[in-house]
Amino acid sequence: xxxxxxxxxTLCETMSKLGLExxxxxxxxxxxxxxxxxxxxxxxxxxxxxxxxNQSPFSLLVDTSTDPDSKQILLLFxxxxxxxxxxxxxxxxxxxxxLEPETGKYIFETIYAYFRKTGLLNEFVWNLVAVxxxxxxxxxxxxxLRGILNTNISQxxxxxxxxRGAKQEEMNAADPVIWVHCMAHKIELALADALAKASxxxxxxRKFATAYLNKLRxxxxxxxxxxxxxxxxxxxxxxxxxxxxxxxxxxxxSSEENGxxxxxxxxxxxWLALEKISETANANKERLKTAAFLNVIKxxxxxxxxxxxxxxxxxxxxxxxxxxxxxxxxxxxx
Length: 334
Prior knowledge:
Number of helices: 15
Protein name: DUF4371 domain-containing protein
Helix content: 55-70%
InterPro entries: RNaseH-like_sf
Distance between the termini: 53 Å
Oligomer: single chain
Largest sheet: 5 strands, mixed
Shape: globular
């Protein structure tokens, strides 16, 4: 587990607030890893306790990912209204390793087992109001997570109501779980359709820019080069450009905007760093690689494309935010 040094004081301060007296033994790698684990467990326990005590309606955000060790991970986020403002709040719930191939049945069983293990099975049956996923068939098809979860939740509610002596009309009146196609995924699909009609020149520029930024990130990942870049301006240490690993193709829109925005912000510093490395490099191969990056940086066409693309992505971001804002209550009935 890697924890950047600048996070250490924050961890120590958090642990102090939780009642731990910080000593020199905590200023070690093992100490920081253990403190992070403790804080994580405390946050998780607090969240689970909140769901159990407040009996608040909640929704789940479900997705799968692959970690650096190529393990399949099921990510669960929970969303519920704040007790004071009633605004929806989203919290990380759990990351569960998938030991079998992804199927709707197995994903449901994994989620069900988690809620049973945490003692939230009753809340899962009665308080779950919505689920948001991507558009993959394993998630949204009738034979996928959607169909299996809906069937099981509906049947569980009917069984409990029947045990309480409820009439058939009451059992049939139970609201079904709402399914939402993730807005970020929708926007990505819509953007892919829109770009399919774009000019070949634009598509080539986008493909080239993506490859260039990803290679430039890898280039400055080397400690010696990164050091030269940070010498240009110490504040660059927190820039997304050198902290993001790459522009992610599956979630291109958001990662591309972050990458281009940070790149333009530090454009001058990257230029100066490349020039300095080019002047001081000993190996011919290093000079040639640096010169290739520098040649693109100096291109006015490349700079113009970056500015234009950032404006396009900014407009897409505005449309995305507007699409996610609920209209006033009165407009719902117009």
